[in-house]
Amino acid sequence: MLIEPLSETELNTVYSEILSPLAWDLGHIANFEELWLVQRVGGREPLDGELGRFYDAIENPRKTRNELPLLRGPELRSYMDEVRARTLEVLDGAELDDGADPMLEAGFIYEMLIAHEHQHNETMLQLLQHVDGYPRPGLDPAIAAEPVAEGPEMVAVDGGTAEIGAAATGFAYDNERPAHERELDSFEIDRTPVTNGAFAAYVAETGAEPPMFWERDGEGGWLDARFGLREPLDPALPVAHVSWEGAADYAAWAGKRLPSEFEWERAAEGSDPARANFDHLGYGTAPAGAYADGASRWGAVQMMGDLWEWTASRFEAYPGFSAFPYPEYSEVFFGGDYRVLRGGSWAARREVVRRSFRNWDHPYRRQIFAGFRCARDA
Ligand SMILES: [Fe+2]
User: Among positive and negative, which fits the CA dihedral 377, 262, 370, 305?
Assistant: First the structure.
């Protein structure tokens, strides 16, 4: 379990203005499960009706979450245990996939809650990288040893009609629907994500802002400073923790551009999610060019897993969008300055991320496990 090694102090420390203290995430995961499964599906009263206000992600900005009267210590643990016990009772008596009102359809809610918890695990991992001395398991040797295939710098992707979004059946978030077609021009896209080595050359030439967690080693090189460790930066790994602005500026410097999210989705057709670095098993990325046997039909590798990839696109509703199961998941974020990221990361769960999955954040943010690859017109 991710939080097992942490002290009560570490659980309640604010490490970054844009990340919640871990105790908030834990209470929020349990409270969200209680709200949707115990109350709405199970029709039961909450254990403490006041808690919902403090664990509402929209009402409470991250930087003020530690000032709330949150559950802490043994109280938090027993709340988590009690909610989980009540959830299991409800699920025991629930008809899964019985075709009832989809708002209260237990099968959908069950999958949504699992995805929600897994997505919070990823944000908790973002924070854990700031915790000095967190006993990170070493990079999984199997991931570090993934063979790297040689190949062209860019691969060609045919234009034409692209199928975008998630089919009407099966679990997906509202923002991935409805599935629809888009006409795309032919384009080229980088075969692999941009590497630390390439980004370091760009920073050296332009003086651009380095990614988060890079520290100068005093000899002209860079260290990777995460989990309280200082390790030489590996130039062969995909560059991580760049902002959208940094990625877009790099692309322009390289004579390229970021792909639109639709180009990204097209370029990822045929990618094998089973041959991808997911599930935070590795605590890091495989070298750029790995998993060539899981490449997309166009030959682009690592589109799924390793790192989220910034795209040029703003986060907007697809034509015919309808909010489900609640507007606060996606709808309230449409039309802002958010840019879309695709493909999942080593810290995301394999079963949560689909080719159509859309993540989003502000263009200046760097806490996401995000890198990028470039594109250009054919
Ligand atoms: Fe949440």
Answer: negative
